[in-house]
Amino acid sequence: MRVFHHSAIASGLFAATLLAGCASGPVPKVAANVVTPGMPNLQTALNNAILRTDQAVDQLDGEPVMTLASARLPEALPGELEQRIRWNYEGNLGPAVHALGRLINYHVVIHHPKGVAPVLVSVHADQIPVSTVIRTLGIEAGSRATVTVIPAEQTIDVRYPRPDAVAAASGKP
Q1: pTM, to two decimals
Q2: CA distance 137 to 94
Q3: d(CA 50, CA 57)
Q4: CATH number assigned to the domain covering 65-170
């Protein structure tokens, strides 16, 4: 016959009491449409975010692609800008624009202040209009340079922002 000690029995009863407290029943479900004061309903917040995103996309849909890119092309393009080319280039923006300018007999003007980092671009065009290649260069340059085509002067103008203007825009001294 086994003898139990009172401390072992007491410990067992204490553990059973603790576990019984955890099994008090299921947690009540809260309906999804209940709004807690001071806390937005998650579904409502998600719906509002989707609505704002849809409105922003609708605004962009109304914009012509060339105003979204940093390459500025005229609405009516002369034949040399519609010429389809096969051209691959990886490197600095300036030499890329010079090469395109030579290809279509355009003068290239580059405004590159001292201290501005070069802009690296990569274009792989296969029977693509020159205007699309120029637009692609402008998109790749982003805010680091602006590429503008002036057909009346047969010129491609590339402007890099001044280092102090870039620092001011980024909030750095």
Answers
A1: 0.54
A2: 10
A3: 11
A4: 3.55.50.60
